[in-house]
């Protein structure tokens, strides 16, 4: 039985975000009915390369769904579908006559998930946007200092924002379904793609800036070595920690570079030695570098694209790609659930294939909900989660559970705390320096904190007692760690047969790369996400952001499927949610295009297949760092928007050229348009440009520095940032979840992230330790409240 058997979803969306949301639900066993306009969903003819008749991506996203033509002249057909469904996924488009507020009013049993650029209300709710302009507003085009100072900022290619929005929409829909249980009222989930971009493309820059008084980075800098040219191709080698930098120095034959007392950050030290490092890389083959880096425990990966990714040995060994019934290659599922069946790839429905079926055989209407008090719903109240995760990916899975009511216990070691506590740059001479990390704070509100040294038998005994009380255990170590300490799934199952264990290794539990360390950048390189990011004349850029939160939200989807499986069967199960499998799925279009049409998608700076023109243009503004480095994003996705742009510019002769009236014509003459727009923008400030173009219906955005996100009027209106008090740090703003539920919590952050070992006494007493035993554990260094 699939976890979502019997869960019926009506898909009233267009675009990748809604399609990917419902594809994830369909993979879990949901019955998805896609309502299309008479002319069909635009994705049916879409190809990013413009090859053939298109449609392969549609087949990937729509496989196994039913297709119904939603003719506006026959509204009762859609109404009947809604009456018999459990959830509906909506976005603006042909089905806009079925407004989400009206659907919720007329069908109060439904979970209505609305996916829009900015949300359903607020000052920007009706404004035009594309993923490109949303990346600009979010600060995602700057990322964590991504790029090179001699070139413009660069967006993350491949429409990754659409997939992130879809994954969040699926997870939050399932959270509502979990809360509803076997009955009860529905929900209106108002999801903002701007907010998913903030969470998926930036690294809590507002919290970082407000807590430490400085941005993460104030300039674009290449990561060194990052993606570099070897003798026979591209390889990605990274230094995410000081130890990895020291190991890189040794690996390249320069131990004299190691300076543990250097006042420079490891990024600055690496940049100083960039020329020598690149020269060394150029003299080695990709395989030689990867073997050396793996031996030194330095994160590394080949740089994948649509042509080579399916042949990489690790993916071959793990069967990471499968053949779609229509003949092209696609990634396998983004997670694996032992003993719970996920659907195999199926063909997409023909347009309107199931219309007659639903005309003659309507779904059984769902009962109206009762009148119980639903002033505030915390879906996961009563759910206990043992959180063994660290850094970014794992906490991105467990933090939404905590924000939605779960009792999440974050386990770390006083001897080796969560890595995010150590990356704030606070001198160890400062009091409680380990409590002053904005990243740790941003990822761990509402959790309890327990310190346990798992290298000691007494520590493992503590963890075993805690696991016996748990519903869910989540960890993101490399696979060998739990094996070495004897805490694998067999042990968990013996301790708590109903427990769900979620393992989030970078590259999976098996395969030749399984024990390789995995940071976001190597996951992005290995999956193809990096390949489409940057400029064609340069090596690709590492997005340095997407890999972790994308892994987290996909693991969250897997947790919710596992909880549904347990609700139906009473059984716990093992979930494998490898970071790279999640990344392969959001980069799926590359391998689909190559296998279906023989087209290798390429990076193209800030241009992209969905709009023309699409680019960043420098404005006359001097930025806050004193540089002429301020930009606006403009993206023309339709002919109507092109006409509106011409009107807003004052109808210049060049914009009226008939050769530019179509998308194909504008793409052909993109250089000419760029030159004209660059000249126009260079004479104006960003605010002036936005005010001239946006009210006219032109998708435009200021490219925001990430730490200025909280200044955006739309995010302020929606309360996306909440101020959080803290016993050591000043009260600063923290990002929340990207959807506002009508019945959900009025405030997501109810208490700050825990101090190191803050809840040791409380939790150890709860699982049966006496005060004397707890004191002995502290005296022996098994638990603690300070590093050491």
Largest sheet: 7 strands, mixed
Secondary structural class: alpha/beta
* Strand content bin: 5-15%
Task: Give the full name of the CATH homologous superfamily of the domain at 612-698.
Answer: formyl-coa transferase, domain 3
The rounded Rg comes to 26 Å
Indicate the CATH architecture of the domain at 612-698: 2-Layer Sandwich
Shape: globular
CATH class of the domain at 612-698: Alpha Beta
Give the helix level as a range of percent: 25-40%
Keywords: Transferase
GO molecular function: transferase activity
EC number: 2.8.3.-
Pfam families: CoA_transf_3 (PF02515)
From the structure above, extract its key features.
30 helices, 788 residues, alpha/beta, seven-stranded mixed β-sheet, formyl-coa transferase, domain 3
How would you explain this protein's 3D organization?
This protein has 788 residues and is of the alpha/beta class. It has a domain at 612-698: formyl-coa transferase, domain 3 (2-Layer Sandwich). Helix content is 35%, strand content 13%. It contains 30 helices and 24 strands. Strands 3-2-1-4-5-6-24 form a seven-stranded mixed beta sheet, with helices on both faces. The chain has a seven-stranded mixed beta sheet with strand order 12-18-17-16-13-14-15, with helices on both faces. Helix 1 crosses helix 6 (160-180), helix 20 (520-527) crosses helix 22 and helix 21 (547-569) crosses helix 22 (579-586). The mean pLDDT is 95.
